[in-house]
């Protein structure tokens, strides 16, 4: 079932042997914009929690908020994805994604409501902390449902839509970073100001989530998306004619074939996020300091990372590495960031200054964005169309495993 070649083009018919004039156009690039927004949407809850870290750290001074959030979110998301893969053949991605968006919405609404009626800006109300951790876990479940489904859907489409989703994830980070810069400049850095800032992050996230729900339920009505959905249906029906209805044994066989086809791509993605999460955001928000920039320093570093992550994820339409071995090797080459950042934290004084740390952080974002996008684009094209969704979900599993391992490894910076 595995296709050994990877398409070179970026047209709507990359993987299809049919005339171009039969393929509906993506009028006004609406489908691209929708998938870009969907990519931004499923990461914006995570970015909202991390960007509001000043407020959460103020409320709960005895907790390592960044790292706890990361561990809970990633591990719960991982378990959620395992269940989705196990039962993907019995469930509908349309339903899974809508349920995930609903859970996101509940979680995002819960935080400002709890702040208004229970925490009220008081320090040390650890009942609120444990509820917040629970809400972060709920977002992890929702992330598994939405991210697995959206990336899986994009895997069935031409590569520009996968690029849109991946670039959208970076755009969500940029959006929330800009909000943080705005609130830092406008609101006083006292209890009231930090509280207003955090509530603004969550209100904007709620608006984006509502927009995502509308966009997702509109997307499948677009002619270009309907066209590729019909192609998938035809491929599924042809496979049923050849192999009969999908049994548990056949599903497992197909799943292992898909895993075998994408395992090296997935390994590259996994190592990308092990490296990134072991450093970012924990080290750049807690472990580096600047006498010049003071508490602006972590904000600038996070913004720099997010901007360069977006730049990296936007470069593939200009140049896409088509040699999988090169892309995977480069992903493993990012392990060099670990000793480099260690030197910035513990080495000679020059390496602890703002310029080396900022340059390294921006390079971390740039390489994270570019190589993630390359591998996410290439991998689903190595399997047949009817298995591309499964390939996309498997890739997200590798990504979340990388995030989970990286978030645990990040603790070693403070041991």
UniProtKB/TrEMBL annotation:
UniProt keywords (A-Z) are: Membrane, Transmembrane, Transmembrane helix, Transport
Annotated Gene Ontology MF terms? transmembrane transporter activity
Family annotation (InterPro entries): Eqnu_transpt (IPR002259)
Subcellular localization, per the record? Membrane
Task: Name the major location.
Answer: membrane
Domain of life according to the entry: Eukaryota
Q: Write one Pfam family the protein is assigned to.
A: Nucleoside_tran
**Membrane disposition:** Multi-pass membrane protein
Which parts pass through the membrane?
32-56, 68-88, 94-114, 126-146, 161-179, 200-219, 264-284, 296-320, 326-345, 357-379, 391-414
GO annotation, biological process: nucleoside transport
What GO cellular component term, any one, is given?
A: membrane
Q: Which family does it belong to?
A: Belongs to the SLC29A/ENT transporter (TC 2.A.57) family.
Which PANTHER family does the record match to this protein?
EQUILIBRATIVE NUCLEOSIDE TRANSPORTER, EQUILIBRATIVE NUCLEOSIDE TRANSPORTER 4
Q: What is this protein called?
A: Uncharacterized protein
Species of provenance: Penstemon smallii
